[in-house]
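Table S2 (text version). Query chain:
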Amino acid sequence: MDRAFLRVATIAIATIVLAAVLGERVGAGEGEEGQDPSAGIERYRQMLEEANPAELDEMRGEQIWTSPAGPLHATLERCDLGLGPGVLKGAYAQLPRLFADTGRVQDLESRLITCMTTLQGLSEATIVAKPFSTAEMQSDIEAVVAYVTAQSRGVVMHVPLGEPQERLAYALGERLFFYRAGPYDFSCASCHSQDARRIRLQDLPNLTTKVGAQQAYTSWPAYRVSQGLFRSFQWRLNDCFRQQRFPEPVYASDATIALTLFIAANANGAIYSGPGIKR
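Corresponding structure-token output:
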């Protein structure tokens, strides 16, 4: 474990430094004369992907997954993510989905809360108090997200919509996606419903198309180089609402799960390639 950690850490540091330099060059418009800036951005992304620091979070997540914790002194190895207790391969590629034991449509993070409370006896309030990592504190649940999602790498997305509750959640997610409000009268669709849009050298995928949804969703969760932190999909939605100047959504709420389901189901048929890496 120590050797692996040092190896990945060394590669990650070198990659981040190189990416920062290249990112500055791309941002300054450097490159071959007449060349599309997107080509430079694509080279930048390819360099990042050669050594993804998210591997460190995956390793920490595996340790948390297999270590006894909570009042019940139990591991998460019997957690049922939809394919049976302890089955991780392909589970994330079929989330969110309806779970019979809770009667709810759940995404990965809300399902992990269920497992942590029922299997380990942890308090939900404690789990959701600080769900996102900061420079001063790493989130355990985000680390577990990194580990679990990595087990579906290479699996085809197949989010189910066979149950009435799943279809209802999809419809709610679609409505939320197009709902305009806030001081800027923004919606998710304001940035993510047209092709060839970009902000600050960052492509904005068109999530209303299958290709756009597939490319975007299958690379999340992801490590953010600019922040030096691993980020879950719940964080991604939270930050989108922040940028729209909306009130912060409740972590793992039915609303955020519905929005996740809408995007994830639109990505069906694509091969999951996360955890990804973002600038």
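Notes on Table S2: The mean pLDDT is 86. The radius of gyration is 19 Å.
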